[in-house]
Amino acid sequence: MRLIHYVPFLHSAPPPKPLLIATPVEPGEFPLLLFLHGFLFDNSFYSQLIQQVASHGFIVIAPQLYILTGPDTSDEIRSTAAITNWLPEGLGKFLPPNVKPNFGKLALGGHSRGGKTAFALALKKLNITTNLKFSALIGVDPIDGTEKGKQTPPPVLTYVPHSFDFGGMATMVIGSGLGEESRLPYVLPPCAPKGVNHEDFFNECNKPAWYFVAKDYGHVDMLDDYTMGFKGQLTYYLCKNGDSRKPMRRFVGGVTVAFLKAYLLGDNGDLLAIRDKHVSVPLEFKFANFV
User: Fold this and answer.
1) Radius of gyration, CA atoms only, the chain
2) Catalytic option among 37, 47, 55, 141
3) pTM value?
4) Which long-range contacts (CB under 8 A, 24 or more apart) does 146-150 make?
5) pLDDT tens, residue order, the chain (291 aa)
6) Exactly one of 42, 219, 224, 270 is catalytic; which is it?
7) Catalytic residue check, 198
8) Cα 76 vs. chain centroid, distance in angstroms?
9) Which of 44, 79, 112, 176 is catalytic?
């Protein structure tokens, strides 16, 4: 796969935000995944994950939505919509000449706060819509605030079962088993608090919806093995983590590819094999779905 860094001021028609793009090496037309980073994270922290997904025949676009921000996600929702609307006119200029995007097969996903932003845009929060239609939605350990009753604006969770109206679009939620545990009880809050985390997001999804929880891994264990800089160093100390990042990252990448194959390409073989544990996976997980 190829990994393309893009700095927007170098082109006369730049995207609304800087992009990190991973593409397949082989020529062809490929589906797309727009993937949103977590709170205060760099998009580069996900380079190994998005390259894993891209190597299976997907173009993955990971924008840098902000450097610093407050609790309100409204600007991120607007920026994600603007990036989505820019894709048909601008993305092709930054891809290798033999790699073509199929805008009719587009998925939206995100991690942590980015997962919340993805769900908010899919739910048309703030009355924001996009010119392109999303065909699948992925939340990787999404969170909607610090605890129930303290959701960040605009709130996504309603605490009404199956209340999310995605118009029949397929959804997948991936959770971390250690995310709701504090690394330092009474000192640090959990990174994916109970009441606003993956369990609550899945409970509000409608058919078809898939749910995987990695038992012994934490909220940031799908990031790159080495995340650089001050923010990168914090990722090792703020959340309760598993023994290493590679198993969780491989699992998240694997189920993401299987889900995208099922709902963008019509091939559900890998997804069913993971569900039924007919293939080897690098960690222990819990599973549920509505189909």
Assistant:
1) 17
2) 141
3) 0.96
4) 146/189, 146/193, 146/196, 147/193, 147/194, 147/195, 147/196, 148/195, 148/196, 148/200, 149/195, 150/196
5) 567 666 555 555 789 999 999 999 999 999 999 999 999 999 999 999 999 999 999 999 999 999 999 999 999 999 999 999 999 999 999 999 999 999 999 999 999 999 999 999 999 999 999 999 999 999 999 999 999 999 999 999 999 999 999 999 999 999 999 999 999 998 999 999 999 999 999 999 999 999 999 999 999 999 999 999 999 999 999 999 999 999 999 999 999 999 999 999 999 999 999 999 999 999 999 998 877
6) 219
7) no
8) 14
9) 112
Judge whether 200 counts as a catalytic residue.
Answer: no
The two three-digit tokens of residue 20, written as one number: 């990190």
| CA 123 to chain CA mean position, Å | 16
Entry field: residues in the chain: 291
